[in-house]
Amino acid sequence: MKILHTADWHIGKKLHKHDLYPDFDLFINWLCACIQENGIELLLISGDVFDLANPSSEARKQYYKALLKLRNLDCKIILTGGNHDSPAMLDAPGEILRELEMHVVGSLRENIEECIIPVKGKSGEIEIVVAALPYLRDADLRSAADGNTYEDRLEAIRMGIQNTFLSAAEVCKTQFPNIPALAMGHLYAAGVETSDSERDIQIGNQAAFQASQFGDFFNYIALGHIHKPQKVNGLVPTYYSGSPIPLSFSERKDEKRVLILDTEKSYLPESLPIPIFRKLLKLTGNLTELQTKLSNLINNSILNNLIELEMVEEQYDATKLYELDKMIQNFNSPGFEIVKSRVNFKNKLSGASELYAGAPQLEDLKPREVFLELLGNHEYEKDISQEILGAFDELLEELQQQEIPNEL
């Protein structure tokens, strides 16, 4: 059986207030062609389908249009929820989608057997069984008896993840003996390389899960959450497919890809690069250098390329600030947009100029970074600081997972 692994679509994502709807449409068109050309029979989507728990009507429309395009290819689909997704929203049309051979698992089921999905091949026989495990939320992993210290809570989360995967493996082994099994997961594995666009999960990523804890039963583990595509050093082939399009400027150099498995040959996936629909460019230099770089831009992308500027000067100079603003306002190069700019003066002066010259903007900081700065202003003992930070991480995660009423 030929299987394609993707994740972290983040439908509805905005990059510096710039909609990425066209990027996703182009990706889906490419994905459909890829599925046809490679004879893909099963598509795995490992979480974070949407960027927000309460996505806009436009984002929902894109989601259902994408599913219909994929369904027309006679390709079975298994989709799991991520930490950005609303489990209830994903699960709501589950029965209808199941009739179309699309299995959506937004939340962990009380009976884990309901997360185990057998997949029939062209012969009509079951060829693969998939443990479709979504993002495991705090309520899925811990009980009141798990302890109250910071380290106790971290260990409870790790053991909760491990036990969930081992339980799923046991169901596969018992109910579908001698049939190859795959697992899907959405989590933060220890040792992976992150980008700026992922939210911290499971107590601020502190409960990093060791890949060896997945065990050695599954033939392949298809992960989501980390946007940079990479292999995880587990006992079996374990991979993050990464996001299909760049979701932050920190991902501008990533080679976006999907992963294809041909189970008749191996469970080591083949990496298939996704075309670049637009470039994210970060241009740095003094005023003169930036002017030169902007004038030498060459456009060979389908969509407008987005630019982040950073002017670096030795001394504070109000004239150069004015010239930078003027240059940005007058910039008009077809195929390019400047979406953000910042200034860094190496020899900062005190006063208003210092505030302008290089101080981070609040919109650039994650909530955890702001809280760490505040925490640093207090002289707490290390253990107490950890407890406070752990409590903040749990509150933040709970807040991010709350569904916003549609009326708002």
UniProtKB/TrEMBL annotation:
Alphabetical keyword list: DNA recombination, DNA replication, Endonuclease, Exonuclease, Hydrolase, Nuclease
SUPFAM superfamilies: Metallo-dependent phosphatases
Pfam name, any one: Metallophos
Molecular-function GO term, any one: 3'-5' exonuclease activity
Superkingdom of origin organism: Bacteria
GO terms under biological process: DNA recombination; DNA replication
Similarity field: Belongs to the SbcD family.
Role summary: SbcCD cleaves DNA hairpin structures. These structures can inhibit DNA replication and are intermediates in certain DNA recombination reactions. The complex acts as a 3'->5' double strand exonuclease that can open hairpins. It also has a 5' single-strand endonuclease activity.
Domain Calcineurin-like phosphoesterase: 1-229
Keyword Nuclease among UniProt keywords: yes
Origin species: Gillisia mitskevichiae
InterPro entries linked to this entry: Calcineurin-like_PHP (IPR004843), DNA_Repair-Maintenance_Comp (IPR050535), Metallo-depent_PP-like (IPR029052), Mre11_N (IPR041796), SbcD (IPR004593)
Protein name: Nuclease SbcCD subunit D
Quaternary structure, from the entry: Heterodimer of SbcC and SbcD.
